[in-house]
Write a structure and sequence with these properties.
Radius of gyration: 18 Å
Order of helices and strands: HEHEHEHEHEHEHEHHHHEH
CATH topology: TIM Barrel
Shape: globular
Oligomer: single chain
Distance between the termini: 50 Å
CATH architecture: Alpha-Beta Barrel
Number of domains: 1
Number of strands: 8
Helix content: 40-55%
Length: 294
């Protein structure tokens, strides 16, 4: 069953850099001290999303989501299709999230090599969620400006078109090529997929932090994590390392050159919350000052 979403379409446009930063959101990982770190460093005006790790499973994500909701944050839990067992499992999770006051979810296929049950991909989980009751107000799905290592481009495009009517926004995976991101978003808009696009970028995380995160994920998932973040690792090895401001500025230059539905930035924080928030405020101050002097 397909649920047609209303009120989520955008007319393709050319967003200002300040608008992309004002709409910024953070992605966090469900570790022991995440809630404490969020409350200490992140204002409740910044929307959050919570990933799922294979080692901890969906319940850790739901626990953190509930905790952050109680602190007044807008929280979007990730729901990986391959970790759901059956329709009853889906209904239980949906009910728990609704009772906690969750308004938004992000539905993705997930990284598990084999599905735990009936749902091999995000589309099948979206259909099961639609059957479980009224949809959440916001439903995010994944976008891949540089493609996906395990999915042919034609299949990836077809899957996105199938999922789009059941979603309200698209969140991209990390892409370090600003031109590729802008071209992909423009092509998406031209094809008739008019959902707001939130462009994913890494925050100001250092290599040592990534090592600690990887070590804490467990052997199998750690290997998948390192594989997914391979391009990020290479940038830390280059002279000068990775700088989120440089990538953001390249996006600020590339995105307005095309007609697209790019709406905001989404920062993969890797739980480096203090540094990420300081970076966001500095960037916002610089861009706001530039607007004031126009």
């Amino acid at each position: 069953m397909t649920v047609q979403r209303e009120g989520t379409e955008l007319r393709p446009g050319r967003p200002r850099p300040l608008d992309l930063v004002r709409g910024i959101g953070y992605e966090v990982m469900p570790f022991r001290n995440t809630a404490q770190d969020v409350v200490e460093h992140v204002p409740t005006t910044v929307p959050l999303s919570v990933t799922v790790t294979a080692a901890k499973g969906i319940d850790a994500t739901l626990d953190l989501t509930e905790s952050l909701l109680r602190h007044g944050y807008a929280v979007t839990p990730h729901l990986p299709a391959r970790q759901f067992v059956d329709g009853a499992h889906v209904a239980d999770v949906v009910t728990r999230l609704r009772e906690a006051g969750t308004r938004s979810v992000f539905v993705v296929g997930g990284d598990a090599p084999e599905p735990a049950g009936e749902f091999p991909d995000a589309y099948s989980l979206l259909r099961a969620m639609a059957a479980a009751g009224p949809p959440f107000e916001e439903v995010g799905i994944g976008g891949y400006p540089e493609g996906h290592a395990a999915i042919p481009p034609a299949d990836l495009s077809r899957a996105l078109r199938r999922k789009a009517p059941m979603a309200t926004r698209i969140l991209t995976q990390i892409c370090f090529d600003a031109g590729a991101t802008a071209s992909w978003a423009a092509g998406l808009a031209a094809s008739g997929v008019s959902l707001p696009v939130h462009v994913g970028i890494p925050g100001p995380v250092n290599r040592q932090k990534l090592v600690r995160i990887s070590a804490g994920l467990g052997l199998g998932q750690s290997a998948r994590f390192l594989q997914k973040q391979q391009s990020l690792w290479w940038r830390f090895l280059l002279p000068g390392g990775y700088d989120p401001t440089r990538l953001a500025r390249r996006l600020f230059a590339a995105v307005p050159k095309v007609e697209s539905n790019v709406h905001a930035l989404h920062v993969f924080t890797f739980n480096e919350l203090r540094g990420t928030e300081l970076w966001r405020r500095r960037l916002l101050d610089v861009l706001s000052a530039g607007e004031d002097h126009r």
